[in-house]
Amino acid sequence: MTANNDLTARLDKGEIIFLDGGIGTELERLGAPMDHDTWCAVALQTHPHLVKDVHRSYINAGADVITVNTYAATRIALRNAGIEDKFEEWNRLAVQLAKETLAECDPSRPVYVAGSVSTFASSSRFGRSWKDGTGELKLWFREQAELLVESGVDLLLIETLASESSVMSAAVEAASEFDVPIWVALSCARDRKTGELSLGVEESSSQSQTFYAYHEPFDLALDKLVAQGGYSALLVMHSEVDVTQPAVRSLCNQYKGPVGAYPNAGYWQRPEWIFVDQISPDDYVAKARAWVDEGAQIIGGCCGIGPEHIRALAQLH
Q1: How many CB atoms are located within 10 Å of the residue 56 CB?
Q2: Which member of 51, 231, 272, 297 has the lowest number of beta carbons within 10 Å of its beta carbon?
Q3: CB neighbours of 193 closer than 8 A, spacing ≥ 6?
Q4: What is the DSSP letter of 126?
């Protein structure tokens, strides 16, 4: 049985699968500099040993899936930084570093490598809206997915943080051309005017409100995504912990395949993550238990969630 078929079989049996936590924020914790345009992707070139250290920490913490450091290695982000020629090199290198680390750790359990196909720098959060045309974006998503699959990832993780549904749809359509499992992750926030869950993102803390964007009602975006198909799991990503449970409930109500969650803690002040209002590992497990009770099978963390949180998730077994 191939690795991706094995992962699918485990989900079909109802097992809980543990994702890793934040990659970029853990690199920042370890001292890797963050770049204004390419955020944590630059560490692939400047600090590859730290990229491997992050993967190793999550493998040792019990993650079943580690995510390669390609979230910010999109063609548009590298173009904005003036280093578009690094696109193929960095995406292939990210997979190489993850697979090297996995071979060095030689865990006694299966660990799968996920390739992040991201909408980073292609949403209105970064100053450009693609609502009126996503053809070029689809080509970029497809080539990133192709590079990751050719380099040996076991699955593709489509990370659509802060993206309009049209951008999300283009990414899913592009990635679904490849013969590996496709997991799609979307963010949500509670609209401050209506109180309803929305497709979008809010990053706030007890100290400041840094960013929020609401694109459309969350359930409406889910309706579109479920109708589109072309993937094997839906997840809530990079959302406030307190909105994750109702978002998971919506996913489980509208989608009959595997569902998951990996929220964040803190907020982004470009290009760095601000580690405030951090949630303890034990409190995170208590929240995650509620997501599992709602029906989630894939549990991990996004920005601000580290190896200690992933290690604590073992209590969910």
Answers
A1: 16
A2: 272
A3: none
A4: G
pLDDT given for residue 267 in this prediction:
54
pLDDT score at 184: 97
**3-class secondary structure, 235:** strand
Place of tokens 């080539």: 143
Tokens of 112: 């799968």
Instruction: Compute the Cα dihedral for 217, 222, 225, 228 and give only its sign.
Output: negative
Report the DSSP beta bridge partners of residue 197. 190
Q: Is the dihedral of CA 174, 170, 269, 208 positive or negative?
A: negative
Q: Please give the single-letter amino acid code of residue 296.
A: A
CB proximity list for 133: less than 8 A, separation 6 or greater = none
**pTM of the complete model:** 0.92
Give every residue of the chain whose pLDDT is below 70, as ranges: 1, 122-134, 162, 203-214, 266-277
Match 């975006």 to its residue by tokens. 221
Tell me if 241 sits within 8 A of 204, measured CB to CB: no
**Contact yes or no for 303/263 (Cβ under 8 A):** no
Domain boundaries of the chain, sorted by first residue: 3-316
Starting from the edge strand earliest in sequence, which strands make up the sheet with 155-159, in order? Answer: 17-18, 298-299, 259-264, 233-240, 182-186, 155-159, 112-118, 65-67
What is the reported pLDDT for 268?
54
Report d(CA 164, CA 137) in Å as an integer.
13
Q: Which two tokens stand for residue 127?
A: 């100053």
- Give the SS3 label for residue 110: coil
Burial (0-12, 13-18, 19+ Cβ within 10 Å), 108: exposed
Q: Domain 3-316: which topology?
A: TIM Barrel (3.20.20)
Q: What per-residue confidence (pLDDT) applies to 46?
A: 98
User: What is the pLDDT at residue 38?
Assistant: 92
- Say if residues 186 and 168 touch (Cβ distance below 8 Å): yes
Distance in Å from the first CA to the final CA of the chain? 24
Amino acid found at 163: S
Unique residue bearing structure tokens 């992750």: 185
pLDDT for residue 11: 96
